[in-house]
Amino acid sequence: MNNHDAVNEILVRLFANILDIEEKCLKIGEFSDLSISEMHVIENIGINRERTMSDTAKDLRITSGTLTTAVDNLIRKGYVERKRSIEDRRVVIIKLTEKGVAAYSAHEDFHKDMVISALQQLDTKEEELLIKILTDIDVFFKQKYDIGYK
Amino acid sequence: MNNHDAVNEILVRLFANILDIEEKCLKIGEFSDLSISEMHVIENIGINRERTMSDTAKDLRITSGTLTTAVDNLIRKGYVERKRSIEDRRVVIIKLTEKGVAAYSAHEDFHKDMVISALQQLDTKEEELLIKILTDIDVFFKQKYDIGYK
DNA sequence: TTAATTTATTTTGATAATCAAATTATATTT
DNA sequence: AAATATAATTTGATTATCAAAATAAATTAA
């Protein structure tokens, strides 16, 4: 097996496993009534931000209809609140409740913990190479597939 | 921003985009009747391999029932064939058809393209260091989060 | 060698995430 | 004022998924 195949194989496995880890950790934690998708909505709304439905849907690359039902459920569960914009009454503003902020923070802590643990075994030179390679992949995607990054 | 935050940020962005990109490429290509999930089944069955339903489901971390319907659809679309094992008639053997192999190869090309362009700027020594880093991280995740690898 | 148990798969009945298209309400343009 | 455009929701559908029940075959135990 050449190096390209080795890197490809391990990246595929890593990506699959990290998603699994995220889901697993969510399910055993304090906010186990949230799905990964719902957590992504919370992540996107963010702390101290008022977001419109359209902008959030666009960022998450889902339709408005999909976001409407997701937000319905997040409101029912107490993580998000919704109000009409005063300037333009077609627009709906969503923001995190206190509970939503707590969930956001917990998730962020998990991310930090995961990354810090993973990097602990690397020396500075290795860390920098890793960042370089991840950046390259990121740039490659952006250029080649014209993905709308925020 | 320190290295930890840099890696966290870029990982989050990569993860948010990678499945979308994969899906996008799939949808504009020759095998646009395949979903990402279905492609993952094809990827797991592999070329020149006969796989049982159980082993494939375990690898993909989905239930046998889920795999049964996925394979039903892949057979209907002409990518997979299914037969009973002769040694143990409870066991169902699945393998790729010629069309399945073609889809597998096309998907592999996408992955290779991704990795090659990411590795382009590294020399062999750096490539090997990267493989070591990724392997270490992979093993680390396995130990820390007790993920059921194959 | 029958009966009980285990194993491999499929079926069934349910839920979550998603989309496209239709609808509703409001704003903007002609 | 009418026509058009925009923001969000609703509707009706599909796909991916699971847990639990059912089916069929193999293995173990009585």
UniProtKB/TrEMBL annotation, chains A, B:
UniProt keyword terms in alphabetical order: DNA-binding, Transcription, Transcription regulation
Predominant cellular place of this UniProt entry's protein: cytoplasm
Localization in the cell: Cytoplasm
Single GO molecular function: DNA binding
GO cellular component, one term: cytoplasm
SUPFAM superfamilies (alphabetical): Winged helix' DNA-binding domain
All residue ranges annotated as the HTH marR-type domain in the record: 4-139
Keyword field contains Transcription: yes
Top-level taxon of origin: Bacteria
Family of the protein in this entry: Belongs to the SarZ family.
Name the record gives this protein: HTH-type transcriptional regulator SarZ
Taxonomic source organism: Sedimentibacter hydroxybenzoicus DSM 7310
Organism placement in taxonomy: Bacteria, Bacillati, Bacillota, Tissierellia, Sedimentibacter
